[in-house]
Amino acid sequence: MDVTRENFGKALAKFAQAVAECDFVALDMEMTGLYETREHQPSRLDTREQRYQKLKRSVEAFGVIQVGICLFTWTTKDGIGFYEAQPFNFNVFPASSVGGVSVDEHFGCKISAFEFLAKNAFDFNKWVYQGIPFLRGDTAERIRSERTLLLTSRQRSMTPDDRHSDFAVQFEAALAEFIASKDTILRYDTTNTYQRKLIYDIVRIHDTLGTRSRVGCIEIFKGSRKTMQRHIGHKVQQFSACVDEARGFTAVIERLSAAQKPVVGHNMLLDVLHAYSKFVAQLPPTFAEFERAVAGFLPALIDTKFIIESTPDIKARYGTSNLDEIAPLLERDCAGPIRFHPHFHRNVSHNMHEAGFDAYMTGATFVRLLNLGSGGLDRAPELVLYRYLNKLYASTAEGISLNL
Asked: How many folded domains does the chain comprise?
């Protein structure tokens, strides 16, 4: 299912139900770049901490443009058991503002990454104009808390700058005249955002006055204290709804985390770091702290690249651990018990490097590795968990995995 801003609400409801029922999840992301310079690329000589710092720098420099999540559920029909796959391809674009509050952040773009996406038919217009907004969880709560405090406080918070001091004096005089009059509404013209903020700041110390934004002016109106309390409560609710709308795709990641299902990826450390950094909170300063944070976020991770690299028979048989190379070979040798959910098959693009399809291929690769037969894996679930759980591929001076 290709998901944009237009069909996100319906897709979120489907995803929430499916992730609660599935057996495991496969994850993949498309990004605007990987590493800023050669100096910041991973090296086999890296220590665990050095690798984390390099990847942390990359995650903080570049953005996420697609998130692929494929849900696999063991199903039995007509006496035949198989995994039913439901792939979601989420096109995401960060929110730039929330209810008039700017959250306009920036991210870098690697030219080679954009050329790569273009060669694989990536639709940049759809990404920008139809991308699902997202706002990181901690940022959303900070903005919500700050605006609530601003709306409910009766204290002045602004001192007019030199250019607007006369405007403030003139408005306070007009406001005093309005309060003393029998008029119920005052419309005061404004020419810029700063003037409007000044008016809001001056009016809010009065508990029997309220404000409404109008084109080219601010409307100030009178009411009882009870009426104004209801008016402010309505504004708080409106802004909170704007925050929820701006959070957008973050709700998908929160439901994924809450489900606590095993999450499968291919060379997935960077994906996990992006998922935490873009949708939960800032990455912790050290790898040890990140280990503790990810334990509550996605507690069961399985990396198919680590499985292949750490299983000599499989690596020798196929000579590669790259997903786009080994996935079709495994499909040839072991079609495996996998079928698309009937409501999802028609929406599958079958394009590698589209996040939704790559997530499907990652999950399918995991299933096929388990069903490869001679030279494959021991299929006993407890052994699979013991050998591969939370060991993410990262070739460093300390081994070929980072153990979470």
From this structure: 2
pLDDT surpasses 90 at 325: yes
Cα distances from 347 to residues 29, 127, 175, 339, in angstroms, run 18, 18, 59, 14
The pLDDT tens digits of the residues spanning 203-236 come to: 989 989 999 989 999 999 999 989 888 888 888 8
The reply to whether 111 and 150 lie within a common domain is no
Residue matched to tokens 């503002």? 97
* CB contact at 8 A, 168 and 159: no
Question: Tokens 């919500």 correspond to what residue?
Answer: 144
Last residue of a domain, one of 226, 244, 262: 244
302 and 388 part of one domain: yes
Q: Are 401 and 394 in contact (CB under 8 A)?
A: yes
Nearest to 143 by CA among 102, 107, 106, 203: 102
Question: 129 and 40 share a domain?
Answer: yes
Domain ranges, residue 201: 143-244
Judge whether residue 352 has pLDDT over 70.
Answer: no
